[in-house]
Amino acid sequence: QVTLVESGGGLVQAGGSLKLSCAVSGSIFRINDMAWYRQVPGSQRDLVASITSAGSTNYAESVKGRFTISRDNAENTVYLQMNSLKPEDTAVYYCNAEVRRSIRFPEANYWGQGTQVTVSS
């Protein structure tokens, strides 16, 4: 069993900052890519940022220069530092990790429960 637990969401004014955390726990042999997605009601879940196990990152155009994804491999944790927040960043943010539970099993994707980020104008 693998569990992802997010924290750090909340309400912030436009221009403010928040830092999201996502801790992966359970039966873990290796974690490959980790990522943050976001979703607003009635829309699909969109990629915000991703990071490989080696630290290579990828960002959605809308957040480049404002958001920073990082990870602590020793703690199995991924972070999303969000600066200069805009009302259009309001969404439920989901953590995603590609986890291999054992050398006997292939990688599988796991999701967190989501954390609400609300940016007021």
Rg over C-alpha atoms, rounded to the nearest angstrom: 14 Å
Low-confidence stretches: none
The total strand number stands at 11
* SSE pattern: EEEEEEEEEEE
Number of continuous helical runs = 0
Helix-residue proportion: under 10%
- Indicate the overall shape: elongated
Largest sheet: 7 strands, mixed
- Structural class, from helix and strand content? mainly beta
Strand content: over 45%
Distance separating the two termini: 40 Å
Mean pLDDT: 97
What brief labels describe this structure?
single chain; 121 residues; mainly beta; four-stranded antiparallel beta sheet; 11 strands; elongated
3D architecture notes:
By secondary structure, this protein is an all-beta fold. The chain is built from no helices and 11 strands. The strands form 2 sheets. Strands 2, 4, 5, 6, 9, 10 and 11 form a 7-stranded mixed beta sheet that branches. A 4-stranded antiparallel beta sheet has the order 1-3-8-7, with no helix packed on it. The relative contact order is 0.33.
Concise overview:
By secondary structure, this protein is mainly β.
Which helices and strands, and how do they pair?
Blueprint: E1 2-7, E2 10-13, E3 18-26, E4 30-39, E5 46-51, E6 57-59, E7 67-72, E8 77-82, E9 91-100, E10 108-111, E11 115-120
Parallel strand pairs: 2-11
Antiparallel strand pairs: 1-3, 3-8, 4-5, 4-9, 5-6, 7-8, 9-10, 9-11
